[in-house]
Structures are given as C-alpha cells and as structure tokens.
Specification:
Chain lengths: ~160, ~500
Amino acid sequence: MSIAWVAPEPSYRSYLQVRSLLSMLILAGMVAGAFFTGIYPADVFPLWWAGAIWAVLTLFFSVFFASRRFLFTAYARSPEGMHLKRGALFRKIRAVPLNRIQHVEFKQSFLERLFGIARLAMYTAGSGGADLTIPGLAPEYALQLKTELLTTIANEPEQEESNNE
Amino acid sequence: MSELAWQRTPLITIAFFLLKQLKQFVTNISNLIPVLAAVFVAGKNAVWLPFALAGGYLVFTIINAVLQQRFFLYAIADDAVHIRSGLFNRQHLTLKYERIQQAEIHEAWYFRPFKLTILSVDSAGSAGKEVMIPGLTMPLAQELRQRMLEAQDAPQSTNTASSTTAPYDEADVEQHFPVSEIIRAGIIDNKLFVLLAVLIYPISQLDLLEDYVVPWVQANVSWLNDDNAWLLVSGAVVAGLAVLFLLAIIVSLITYHDLKLSIRGERFQAKSGALSIRTLSFRYPKLQAVYLRRNLRARLLKRSVVRVSQLQPRQAQGGAQQGGQQFILPVVDADFLARFRLLLRLPDSAQVNWQRLSNLALLGPSVWLGVLAPVAAGVLFFALESGVLGLVLTALGWLLLQTLVVLRWRNYGYSFVTSDTQPKEQWFVVRRGIFSRNENWYPRHKVQQIDVEQGPWLRLLGFSHLVLHTAAGSESIEFLARDEALRLQEEWTQEIARNHRRWM
C-alpha cells in the first residue's frame, strides 16, 4: 500500500474534543433544566448518579473517543484520486478518482474558525450529500488544494473514442 | 441566444397541466389530512364549508392550469432546449442535449385523439430535474428527440458511422413481445400484493365484515351451518385474490401492450402501451447499470426481467416520478436474453466465474440466531399454555430463519468480467436473492467512489466490505479479505482515473 496518508491538523483533535464536550454540556443543561423545573424524578434516580454517569461518558467521549477518532482520520492525495479514512469503531476508507469529482466545496463552521481549521467537501455524480469531506485542514491549504483539484478536473482530457480498448 | 424562437404549446395542453396538478394533489394528500380533518370538524356546523373548499380548489386549479399553459414557452436551439415557465416565479431552464440521459415520447391517452405527445427528457442534474414539453406533434417530437440524441453522437461519429447513417426507420434489432409474453410479465410482476396492502387498511377501517356481511349471511343463508362456513369463507378469499391477480395482469397488459424493442446503433428504444403509448429511448454510453431480475414466479416461467438504469440522483429515487420512467423489458426468455446481453455488451453467462462468500460470513447471523432462539424459547415456554408447543414453535422459527440465512449466503456471488463483445466492456456483477435470482451489472469505469468498510465484527474476522458507488446506486461486495479489498480499491481507483472514456 503506497498511499501516503496525511494526518489532519493537530487542532482538529481539540476541535473534536470541544465539540463532543459541547454536546455533553447541552445534555447536562437539559438535565439541569429538568431538575430546576421539578420534572426530574430525584427520588427514583438520584442526581449524583446521573452526574457520575455524565462525567464518565464525558470523559470517555471527549478524552478517549475523540482522540481515537482523530488518530484514525487521515487523507491522502495520489495522482489518481483522493483518499480518506475515518471512523474509530466503524472504519471506512473511501477513494474517489479525481476525474469523477463534480465540484468542490470549502466549508468552515463557527467552531472550526475558532480552531483555525476548515473542511473540503468533494461531490461526485448521482449521490445525495457530500461524498468525501476532508476535515481538519488548515484553511490556506484547503483553499490551495481546492484550486489544485479544480485545475486537475478542468484539464481532464475530453472523452475519446469509445472503443479505444 | 437572442434569436430564440419561443413557442407556445397548443390549448389542449391545459389538460396536461390540470392533470399534473391533480397528480400533485393526490401525492400530497397525506400531508393535507390534518387540514381536512379540521375542515371536517368545522363542517359539522357549516355543511357548505367542504363544498366551498372543494369548489374553490377546483376553480383555482383550472385558472392555474390555464395560466400555466399561457406562460409555458419553449424554444429549440441547435444544442439546447430552453423552457420558460411560471407566472410569478419565472423560470428559465436551459438543457444541453449532450447532458440528456434518456428521452421519452409519451402519447398520453387524452392527447391521442389530437395526435399530440409529451416529450420528457431526464438531465443529469443533482435534483433529477426532468423537463416535459407537452403538446408536440409526433413528427416534431421524433425530430426533436433525434436531434437531441444525435448531438451526443457528434464527438464519436467515426465509431458508429456505419449504423447511424442507416435510414431512420430501419433498426438493427427489433423485437416484438406478443400478448402471451405480456401475460407472463403480468404474472411475474404481479402488483397483487401491493394492491392488497393498499386495500387492507380501508377494509379494516370500515368494519365491513362485522356490520354488513355477517348479518346478511345469518339472515339469508340459513342452510349455512358451522361445518362448511370456513369453506365458504376461504372460497370467497381465494376468489377475491384471483380477481386481484387477474386485475394485476390486466394492468400489465395495458401498460406493456404491443411492447416493441428496437436497437439502432447505440440507441435503445422501447415502445409500449394500450391507452397511453410511451416510447423510451436512451443511448448506450449513458447506461449506468443493468439489472436482471428473476423472482420465483419468473424462474418457474423461465423468464427474466431486464431493467437498464441511467444516472439517477439518489434523492430522486423512491420519488413519485419513478416507475414508468425506467427502461424495462418485463419479460425476456432465455434465447432473447442471451442476444440482448450481447447487445448490452454483457458477457455470456457461462463466462462469469462467480465468487462465493467466505464460510465465515455465515457466522455472524448464525450466532445472533443461536443467541436469540434460546431466549425466545424461554419466553414462549412460559408464555404459552403448553410449554412444548412453545419449544416446537421456536425450533421451527429458528430452522426457517437459519435456512433463509444459509440460502442468502449461498446465492450471493460477485464477479469481475470482461466481455468478448466489440467494443469490450469491463463489468462487475453482484448476484443475490433468497428465492429469486437477481444480478446487478455495472460497467467498471463508471464507478464514482470506492469504500472499504470495516466494523468491529469484521475486524475481528479480518474482512472488509468493498462498497462501490455508481451513478445508478451503490453496490457492496461483502466479506473480502482486508488486503484484497484494499488492493482492489487502489487498483480500480487508478484504472478509473486513467480511463478517459465518456461515463455520463
């Protein structure tokens, strides 16, 4: 396997951690809201139990799982195609031949802007959503990659004889 | 662009716009149910309200249809078709001929007395945009379609010159499907079960049986005693099913009446219909997938169903516009299938070297069943009146499911084949089915993206799934050895990237 895998920016790890922390905080907020409005069944399920479970889950997802996801995220650009591998538990390695890319999109959410990273999404024909989204790129590099890809796509040789084999 | 000759469609096309709206209304009716319920409740005090609403809707639809017809303009240029529509939301649509996936001439039943047609073309856009021009005369529609499909010919004229210069009305291959075959098609593709599913719900809501049938039977059929009651009931059920079965065959007879396939050069065309005649055509380079379907009934009748698919955005799939739009040969016998496979540049079936799934692929489902069966047995042992019955039921259920799992595993197969036809075509094919035999063929160079997927269970066993996404849908080749999957992924990516043949 001669694919030269490139890891995303290190700040992508912090981004993943903060993002999972945020979702856990929203969950905590909901529980807290339930507690203060009195809906929370404190006599059935003591609050400190819920707190302990929350803490364990938060630690697991934000510290362990997020960095594991970061570890297994990598992309590669070969002369023929873009490759991306993702997933800590369910691993997925995706390859898209360059001449099948229809359009490229540069994406950056608010949180990603704070961490100074961006995503690059590539689309192929016949599919609904984004087909290959490379996360955790430095914005300058993402833009540069986008221009490069677009030039490659535009310079694709036009269709030749259909019986050239 | 300035000298586009805008044309308006004939007045009768108001009917087309009217029907289009009606169709929309029917498909959206489920969303309107809350509103209708509210109207119904309010209507208890005001009887006129539902009528007023229905009348208002009718008037609105008619006015809308008239306006739509007035504001629908089309223009035919050398390389594109332009359409302007809409009263308040003006739309100007330009569709290049070379992007057209397939063209359909639809002689709708309400246009046939006027010798008019609807021309609809599918583009490759991500929204699955379909363009329909109603009210063209047949010669004009045919000429237009010819022009659209010829525009695609231009870049490769040397290739098919010999066949395309032939006179228009002379096809290389023509196949006519007689009525007996269409009846077989009706049996194979029987909508009986769909009809049943649609009918069961309203019937169950009406309490027909309890309220009307049972009292009537009790009052009038005094000779009926309990001994032969079940006979009568089952007879009635069988008769009902038979009627539905026949109805489904009649539907097939109407849609596929006088089915004729003609192939000229790279152009495939199928024409059929008793009331509305549909003529569907596409060009070979647009082909994205070929599906060969043989369900149990088809296998007994020794026939197959062939469906050819072009680029289909996934969003549009399952939408209302599927069905009549696809290129289908509903009944094909073995002889013609062999010929048709050659025409589609598929390899001979003897050439296919089917690869089976690894034995370990059985392990996962079997383990699940093995774990769940004792649990079910335990529950049923105590829940049912007789514990032994519970055990026997579980054992039978387990046996049935395990057989299905084994059958599915046994019938799954994949292969990579290069055809002997001229020009050569490389395919990958996946075969699956429990009682049916379905083969999905995809041209290899039209693959869009390739995934290697591996969950925790597969990682334990050292396997991966190879998922190939094509423009006509995705297909997975299951339980490949990890290294093999990665090797194939890399090899195919390189091969596709270096292949500059037209894929769309």
